[in-house]
Structures are given as structure tokens and as C-alpha cells.
Amino acid sequence: xxxxxxISDIKATIDACRRRCEAEGxxxxxxxxxxxxxxxxxxxxxxxxxxxxxxxxxKAALQECTASVISHALAADPKSHGLWMFYLRNRAxxxxxxxxxxxxxxxxxxxxxxxxxx
Length: 118
Hints:
Blueprint: H1 7-24, H2 30-37, H3 41-48, H4 53-75, H5 81-91
Helix pairs in contact: 1-2, 1-4, 3-4, 4-5
């Protein structure tokens, strides 16, 4: 994986990204964070799922991104709620109430008792 730099560099990049998003009037979001770090979003998530100081900082930044998007969506024009809900579902793991989550166990489904069906 790409070296992100020192802890100070990472914190400075996160702070600069947060300020830029605020200046643009948009929420601090994970895709902006990934662009600022010059790595794909999936790599940010991979780093955040690890151990150590870098993982802790990135995990906290991703949580802040989710909170920022929620806050922005609640304050935004109702016509744009769909955009932010789409973001939360695809980047933050949110789901509609009662929505079944897809699971991939990679195990075949085995039906038993079919021979007794009349």
C-alpha cells in the first residue's frame, strides 16, 4: 500500500480537506478525504480497518465524514436529500429500516425435502 506520510502529515491533510469542504459549502466527506490523501476511497477504508495510529486517525476521520454528511443533509434543501441518502447507503453502510442486507457467504444454498413436495 502507498505510504501516507507521517502522522502529522496525515492530520494536516485531513484538516486541510475539512477546511476546503467548509469553504466550498459542502460536507466533509470520505471521497474528498480520499482525494486529498491521493488514494482511492477503498484504500482509505482498508487503512482505517487496520491497527495503529494511522488506522485510528482515519477511522475517526471517516466517522466525522459520516456525521458531516448527515448534518449537511438535514440542513440542506429537501430536494437534495436523495443525493446524501445515496451517499450514506454506499459509503457509510446505512440501510432503510427493514431493508435486508445482502450477505455473501459463498456457501451454496441446499434445499432439503423437495422430494416430498406434491
